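Support case: user asked for a sample of complex input and structure output to validate their parser. Sending the pair below.
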Amino acid sequence: MSADITARIREDIFAAERAGVFRAVGRALPRIDARAHVSGSTRYYADRSFPGLLHVVMARSERHHALIGGIDLSAAEAVKGVVRILTHKDVPNNWYTILKLIGMGPDEEPVLAEDRVLYRGEPVAAVLAETADAAREAAGKVRIAYEDLPAVLDIEAAMLTDASAIKPHGSNLFIYDGRDHFHVHCGDTEAAFCEVEHILEHSYQSSPIEHAPVETTGAIAVPEPNGRYSIHSNTQAAFFTLDNAALILGVPFRHLRVIGGTVGGGFGGKVDVIVEPIAVLGAMRTGRPVKYAFSREEEMQVSSPRAAERIRIKDGVMADGRIIARDVRILVDAGAYSRHSPYGTIKAAAHMPGPYTVPNVTINAWCVYTNRTPSSAMRGFGVTIGDFAVEVQMDRIARLLGRDPFELRLQNAYRDGEMKPHRKKVEGAALVEVVQAAAERIGHSLPPEYRAMSSSRKG
Amino acid sequence: MRSSFVSFTLNGEEKELLIAPGQRLVDVLREQCGAMGTRNGCGQGGCGACTVHVDAVPMLSCLVLAELAEGCDILTIEGAARDRTLHALQEAFVAEAATQCGFCTAGMIMAAKALLDRDPAPQREAVVEALSGNVCRCTGYEPIIAAVLAAAAMLARLPAAAA
């Protein structure tokens, strides 16, 4: 690997953490799986053969929001090679929510739709057939009678008091301990805004982002002679998958065994538990191995993307560049079901006001349901869009004051020992050093007092 | 329509297989020949993960009907190494950290090998062009381009017979 991309260890900073000489940190070592990757011998979940394998193709909602009047399976069942078609009636515990495992509820997503669908692409009926082609043909022949309902496709429209509530609890907002949003407050933001020289308010908006892994989401469930089921999966969350699948299927955890760890690109997109419960259920009902893999179209349309966010930041800035008040409103588009978004929304709120010490902070974050594809985990979900917003805001403040954007960041950067708004002390801060290193790399000169700054002391 | 026998050479080995009409080459290679190193990423010619050589030409095996491989010479990633010695491209992909999840790697190497087979000393632009049909979501491509150029340099130092 070229030397310029190898990290250089700042031994002055990390002196206290060094026990002897680093053996791996700071060196370019080959990945342990690299030789298998280049020779093609890596075995992904799909690179195994199982005699008698059945294939699942899902019949999905063609509507954003609708009541289901009826499901006619007769034409689909008549397709040669179809073995079984599963609907919600086949699922032992059809209602779940993935974050139940960390105490967040309620169960609010059906494994297979019952009397209504809340997004286009929502799974309705799982066709099991001898070949993928037969399953695909039959899935296209599942006739679903819809009665359309008004679709809520915009986060702010979903929050209006007269918006139609798409969720059973009568609101389009996730409820945190009795409140319709998550909040973080410290200091007195309103009072601080009265004392500042400048107030700067801007809005930022992102779109959903699809991970688009080259290997699509999939799993193969195999009945074992001991009565248990092996799940060959490309999940990024083997234990989330095992536990949630067992809860959905109503079997003890020990009845399932997840075999995974080799993921052909995940980026957070393989953290939800979508294909495994259906594959195992199919294996239970037929006694045969069952493969359920997303097509590329499904990966793009129904695998959960990074949530779209709408963020408004209002900053109170002193003439000398200190930010003394920051008020942030965050709206997170969960799509139709929770998945990881209630948690991502908490992360978004707790991440504010960014890596800066601001004494007066008000953060309000709403996790909003809409009739869009459910959003979920993706690389730093909950914080990356906020970082984009905060850093663009920092540049705007610098421009407003005619300040160097590096210096403005160094001035406001948090230091070790300072208190963050959510009442955690800053530890291991490195923004000062990172900004200094970035300036040096691009040949941007900083005055001596800024070069002398450190994350471990104020000044 | 009935299945028919199709013969081709796979990594130097003669194959005669019963092929159903409409079967894709990628599925035949993986399921009937056990050549699982050829990955199926999209099934629509969009990602390049299934790239193999058909008569020395890089092709997307998800878009090739297996019946059309009659009489062809097919090379997959399993045939890129010789006598258990990795090809220079494979060594370079390891050394330059050009793999992460590894799912695109076989297709990348086959696309790159087709380039080096016809142009042993390519410019960077030619490497980019040769890999333009192959998607990698992990690396950002730079280590892959560096690996192909490093492999070309490695091959230039080898006697022709070893390449």
